[in-house]
Amino acid sequence: MKNIRNNNGYTIIEMLTVLSILIVISSVIGAIIVSSLRGTSKINENISANRNGGYIIDQMSKMIRNAYRLDYPFNCFESSTISSTFAKITITNPDGYSTTFSCIADNEDGADQKANIASQSGASKIKLIDESVLKLNECYFKCSRKFKSSYPIIDIYFSLKPKSNKSSVDVFPFQTSIMLRNIR
To answer: How, if at all, do strands 98-104 and 116-121 pair?
Structure first.
């Protein structure tokens, strides 16, 4: 008898082999896409933290540098060796109004106040950190003078963390020193 073979289709083994290869390739491509999206998200958080922190430092620096008077802390003027840290600083602006920059801590009692850096001039209080993507990690001000007759130097330090970050790996520190040059 003659051996008749039908070559018009694929066997089930061939179909399963091709299907397995496609699944493996799809899994690899999917993993690459997910990894890329995570990386993009992290880069966007880093850009946001750097942009927001730079804005805060810039705004505080301009106002403190041009202040006519340092109202709080008072003890910055008492001694030539003072170097203390404070949670807030109050200045008198060239227009005669006071502005307070303060580090707002998280409420211990569970109230709806989030840690932030605030600027208060008159009746308006503005939170400077974009709380939708960032949170305050640490914040303080330091006032010092080299000599009793020298101008006060205000050090600003704060660090920001992306809101979605659970670990302490991505902390963005910001700091600067400003000499009050318009003290009257």
So the answer is: antiparallel
Q: How far apart are CA 182 and CA 178, in angstroms?
A: 12
Cβ burial, residue 137 (10 Å; 0-12/13-18/19+): middle
- Report pLDDT digits (tens) over 80-134: 454 578 888 999 988 888 899 988 866 554 444 567 888 888 778 888 888 888 8
CB 126 within 8 A of CB 118: yes
Query: In this structure, are residues 142 and 112 in contact, taking their beta carbons and an 8 Å threshold?
Result: no
Radius of gyration of the chain (CA): 29
Residue among 48, 176, 50 nearest 101 (CA): 176
Q: Where in 62-133 does DSSP place strands (E)? A: 69-72, 83-86, 88-92, 98-104, 116-121, 124-127
Kindly report the pTM of this predicted structure. 0.72
So what's the pLDDT on residue 146? 77
With vertex at residue 71, the alpha carbon angle to CA 69 and CA 75, rounded to the nearest 5 degrees, is 110
Q: For residue 82, which of 178, 139, 155 has the smallest C-alpha distance? A: 155
CB-based burial of residue 78 (10 Å sphere; 0-12 exposed, 13-18 middle, 19+ buried)? exposed
- For residue 75, the model assigns a pLDDT of 62
Strand 134-144 with 69-72, pairing: unpaired
